[in-house]
Amino acid sequence: MTSLPPGPARPVRRPLPQVIQGGMGVAVSSWQTAASVARAGQLGVVSGTALDLVLARRLQDGDPAGDARRALAAFPVPAVAQRAITRYFIPGGREPGTPYSPVPRPAVRAARMPQELGILGNFVEVWLAKEGHDGLIGINLLEKIQMSTPTAAYGAMLAGVDYVLMGAGIPRDIPHLLDELALHHAVQLPIEVAGAAPGTHTVDLDPHALLGPDLPPLTRPAFLAIISAHALAAYLARDATIRPDGFVVEGPLAGGHNAPPRGQLVLDDTGQPVFGPRDEADVAKVAAVGLPFWLAGSQGTPEALAAALAAGAAGVQVGTVFALCEETGLTDAIRDQLLARLRDGTLTVRTDPLASPTGFPFKVAQLPGSLSDAETAAERPRLCDLGYLRTPYLRDNGAVGYRCRAEPVHTYLRKNGSEEETVGRNCLCNSLTTNVGLGQTRADGYVEQALVTLGSDLDGARRLAELYPGTWTARQALDWILDRRPRIPRPDVSRAFSQVGPG
Predict the structure, then answer these.
(1) Is 136 in contact with 42 (CB distance < 8 Å)?
(2) C-alpha closest to that of 61 among 33, 31, 89
(3) What are the beta bridge partners of residue 318?
(4) Which residues contact 124 (CB under 8 A, 6 or more apart)?
(5) How far is CA 336 from CA 148, 259, 326, 341, 343, in A?
(6) Would you say 364 and 352 are in contact if contact means Cβ atoms under 8 Å apart?
(7) Is the pLDDT of residue 227 over 80?
(8) Pairing with 15, which of 40, 49, 213, 389 sits 20 to 30 Å away (CA)?
(9) pLDDT per residue over 180-200, tens digit each?
C-alpha cells in the first residue's frame, strides 16, 4: 500500500455550506439522508453515536440490501472487516423474537475487538454516506461519550469524513486528536472520571498496533464545536491547540440534549426548565471571534437562514425537518405517527430535565406508546446493558468503575450514587435504537420501547407538511430552505476557514 506522507493530506477548498443537516439520535441522521443533502451541495451529517452497535445489529438482521457488507469490503484492512462479519452476520437475519447478540460496552480500557468494531461502525456509516458523489459529509459526536471518541473519529476519517462536529460538553481536546489521528499516531484522549483528578485518565488508541503498519494516507477533517455560549467560543478560539475550525451555535430549542439553563434551575408549571436571555449566545460576539459559525435550534425555515446570513453566520444547522423526511433513519411507523400528529396539531415536544442519564435536559416528542408516556416508562425494567451514557467513576479501591442513573436503583446506590439522581431517568441507549428499528427483544420477552427527540420549534416541519401531503424528501426540504429565502448577500467568511478543513 502507499507509504504515509510526511503529514495529513490537505483537503480541497470548497465553499462553506449554508445548510448543515443536523446529526440526530442513533442513526436517525441516516447515511441515506446525509448523502441526499451532500449531493445537493450542502453538508450531510451522520450521527456517530453507537455505530458499533448499529453495524452489529444490521449484520444480525441479515444486511438485506448488502449495504454494510459493501462498505466493509472497502475497509483498508480486510481481515478486520471479516472478523466482524464472521462474528455478527446472520444470513437471512435473526429469527423473530430472538435477542440480538451483545456488543461490548464502552470502557476506559477497551480490548481489541470493541475497538475494531467501533472503527468499523463509523467507517461503514460515513463510507455509505459518501458513496457515489463528491459532496461533503460530516459526523456528529458527543463529548459526553468520551470513551468511544477516538475509535469513532478514526473510523470516520478512514472513510474520508470531511467534518467532525461535537457538542454536549467542552470539546477542547478534539482538534489535537484529529491532528494526531490524521497521521495514524497513537493518541491518548483525556476523559473525566468522577472522583479522580483531571487528566489522570485517558482513552487510548494506537492505529498501527490495532490495524497494522500499512494504512492509507488520511485527510484531517474540519472540526466544528457545537456551543451554546459566546464565552465558550472566545475560550476555544484563543489557543491554537484547542481552536476549532468553526462553531455551531445551538439555542435551547434544538432537539436532543440541551445545555442546562445558566444559574439556578427553575422549572415552569409543566416541569420544564426555564430558559432566559442568558441562555442565548450573543451572535455578534461569536462573529467577532473571527471563525465561521452556523446557527442551530429553530432554524429550519427560509426566513431563519436569511436572518442567520444577515447576522454574519455562514448558514444554519437544521434537524427536525430532516428527522421527518423520507430518508430518515426513524422507522416508517414512528415517522408516520409523528407526521399524523403534526398535521392534526397534537404533536408536542417537551424539554425533560430528568430523562437523560447525563443530567442534560433532553427534548422528548410526546408520543403515545413510547417512553414519553409515564405508564409505558414505568413498565420498563431498569437495566443498563449498552452503556454509552454511563459515567466512569473512581471506586473506593482506586479502580475505575461505571455507573448510570438509568440502571437499577440498588445498583446505582452500591456505586456511591444517590437515589435522587435516579428519579425519572430513561434508558436513552436502548430507546434510541428502537427508534431506528434496532431495538432489543429480551430473553424474557420484553421489547424495548421508543423515545423520540425533535426540536421544540415545529414551524418548518408544519409548513413542509402543508406543501407535501405524504412525506417529503431531504432534497425537497433542503430546496425549500434554500430557494424560497430572500436573496441576501452571503458574508465572506472563507478567509477565517483557510487553515484546516474543506471550507
Answers:
(1) yes
(2) 89
(3) 21
(4) 51, 55, 68, 71, 72, 159
(5) 32, 29, 10, 9, 10
(6) yes
(7) yes
(8) 49
(9) 999 999 999 999 999 999 889
Domain span at residue 192 reads: 19-331+459-490
pTM score, whole prediction: 0.92
Residue 293 lies in a domain: yes
List the beta bridge partners of residue 295: 249, 316
Average pLDDT over residues 424-441: 94
| E strand intervals along 325-376 | 349-352, 362-365
CATH number for the domain including 157?
Answer: 3.20.20
Q: How far apart are CA 279 and CA 260, in angstroms?
A: 8
Contact 60, 69 (CB under 8 A): no
Kindly state whether residue 144 falls inside one of the protein's structural domains. yes
- Count of the separate structural domains present in the chain: 1
123 lies in some domain: yes
> How does strand 43-47 pair with strand 293-296?
unpaired
Is 202 strand, coil or helix?
strand
Quickly count: other Cβ atoms within 10 Å of residue 345's Cβ: 9
Q: Distance between CA 55 and CA 425 in Å, rounded?
A: 27
CA distance 469 to 321: 14
Plot region of 256 (φ>0 → left; ψ -120 to 50 → alpha; else → beta): left
- Identify residue 416 by its one-letter amino acid code: N
Q: Is residue 340 part of a domain?
A: no
Amino acid at 7: G
- Residue 488: per-residue pLDDT: 45
Q: pLDDT tens-digit profile of 74-89?
A: 999 999 999 999 999 9
Length of the chain: 503
pLDDT tens digits, one per residue of 4-29: 344 455 555 678 999 999 888 899 99
Q: How many CB atoms lie within 10 A of CB 247?
A: 27
For residues 402-414, one letter each, b for 16 or more C-beta atoms within 10 angstroms of the residue's C-beta and e for the rest, the string is bbbbbbebeebee
Question: Whole-angstrom Cα distance, residue 65 to residue 340?
Answer: 29
Q: What is the DSSP letter of 25?
A: T
What value does the CA radius of gyration of the chain take, rounded to a whole number of Å? 21
Measured CA distances, 257 to 8, 260, 322, 367 (Å)? 33, 9, 17, 18
Helix or strand or coil: residue 148?
helix
Contacts of 287 (CB under 8 A, 6+ apart): 293, 311, 312, 313
List, in sequence order, every residue forming a beta bridge with 223; answer none if it has no partner: 164
Name the residue type at position 88: Y
- Report the C-alpha gap between 365 and 297 in whole angstroms: 15
Residue type, 321: V
**Set of cell numbers at residue 231:** 464565552
